[in-house]
Amino acid sequence: MRVLAVVPARGGSAGVPLKNLALVGGVPLVTRAVRACLRAELVDQVVVSTDHDRIAETAREAGALVIDRPEELSGATASSESAVLHALDTLGADPEVVVLVQCTSAFIDPDDLSAAVRKVLDGEADSVVSGLPTHEFLWTSAGAGVNHDPAVRQRRQDREAQFRENGAFYVMRASGLREHGHRFFGTTAVQPVPPQHAIEVDNPEDLELVRALAPFIDRPEPIDVDCVITDFDGVHTDDRAYVDSDGREMVLVSRSDGMGVSLLRRSGVKVLIMSTEHNPVVAARARKLGVPVLQGLTEKRTVLRDWLRIEGLDPARVAYVGNDVNDLGPMSEVGWPIATPDAHPRVRAAARVVLTRPGGSGAVRELCDRVVAARPEVAVAEAKVEVKPRLGPVAIGDVLVGHGEPVYVIGEIGINHNGDLDIARRLIDVAADAGCQAVKFQKRTPAICVPEEQKGQIRQTPWGEMTYLEYKERTEFGRNEYRQIAKYCDERGVHWFASPWDVPSVEFLEEMDVLTHKVASASVADHELLRVLAATGKPIILSTGMSTLSEIDAAVEILGTDKLIMMHATSTYPLPPEEANLRTITTLKERYGVPVGYSGHERGLQISLAAVTLGAVCVERHITLDRTMWGSDHAASLEPSGLEHLVRDIRIIEQAMGDGLKRVFPGEEAPKARLRRVTV
Known about the structure:
This protein is an alpha/beta fold. The protein is built from 24 helices and 29 strands. Strands 24-21-20-29-28-27-26-25 form an eight-stranded parallel β-sheet. Helix 1 (29-39) runs parallel beside helix 2 and helix 7 (255-266) packs parallel to helix 12 (363-373). The protein is elongated and about 110 Å long. The model is unreliable at 378-389 (pLDDT under 50).
């Protein structure tokens, strides 16, 4: 070992408490010092001398060898030389050159460090100090010139540069340090450093200054994260809005952002948009990008923290991009706070990275490219959408749905309420009394969903003769009914949601603040609807009846898998056993890596119970007060006693499935002792 770098980093600090752990550009000062040494070509080994456990742990994570610094060498009056000599003695090392590197300098260029080492190795100097070239005129407090004659005012170009010691690093012959006991001996040379690298952190103001400079001085590096979260206004846009005469807003975005987001998603990185405003423009852009969005947020930081917990993401591996002061909260929660170049000064100062392109002009694309660059294993040009196996669980409100969780049982009310709110309440009671966790309805805009050729067809109904369109409108619940349904479900302790059959119905359900959305089997190929649902950011339950795998592939491409639950289903009413095809539950799990449930339309309970034994994480069955009631779905529905038996038997099966570990149970011990015969 020819060159040893020693970084003294004690825990005490008068100016800034625990200064050596202070973050600059999202990185502790001690880590920045260690990285500079490791990147210096001529440094062979890096040692951190410290008396503080957290500093020691951080230094080890950065790649340094740690030496415990004794108490007598850790006080405010202890010299840095004493720490270096102690490190040499502890290691028993005899390097030719030793480098003293101080954490107080946040911006050490490894090339400058190697250049200083080279001067000692080549015999040009015995010791080298880093210094800032300056032509400044210095004065004493008494008004006398220190480095100039006040009577002769020289021009800058006529004065030889002098150097201000900046304290970043000192390079010495190890033998000279041992002999003299201090860092300056023999021939001393200066290694010039640029002004932006010459700031020492001695007080809070210095720390604030280097934090503001870090995004502009640090060299661009790949951003290695698992998730990218962005603000909308000022990040996807230039923070301006265009308003037409009808009050409709338009914003300017960059087309290149779309490709960047697509590359992120293909590489397995999660993407989310968060916005304080509830604006259709935001939803439309998110829909176009195919990413979820959380809108109308008053407290971004809390929502972000909860979302990361639900998604099981490590905050240290998450990037958040913002531009204004309301982004400071969420930026403080993640390992990669990022700002646009025209962001508020406080936001730029808090950022680990400041992008070079402004919002609306490719800021998102620039970020995406740097994130993808950290994932070299992904061949972007040939990338296919590969789903990472995760198998849940997915959070629906306060309930987790997935492997190892209780089966989520949904009572499908659908249209079996026949447009009667009282019947709907009674069916909610049936589900709650049986032990279901949720009830589901269907929501349509009849004018959109009823085919043109059927709208005028005459139907005989319990309310008299009417057109099919009139009948569908007659049985459709509106805001008033669903508000009462929501209130009643809350009172009975069950979730409620619906299958929206058209875009206005999604918007309606979003206004009702449902916990999740269900995609009916009939809607699997309705890509416009799927994009709108994906943009809500809500969990999605996708039924797969009457669908091919290629059709399901296309739906998953739009919906993503982060919050997706699939439902195996066969859309035959009622379902004959030979068409149940329950082994498809396993096929869907293996192909898409998401939790898979079962939506049944059979008579009886056997097929639904078999689905649970095959691993269905949720079960949905139509429910009715009486199978003889008027309506298309009643005949394939469960009556109250049937639903009660289904839930009861599901819970029994859950207990009976066990954990797969073969062992002797307590109830077997007595028979084993009485009956087991052992021979050799």
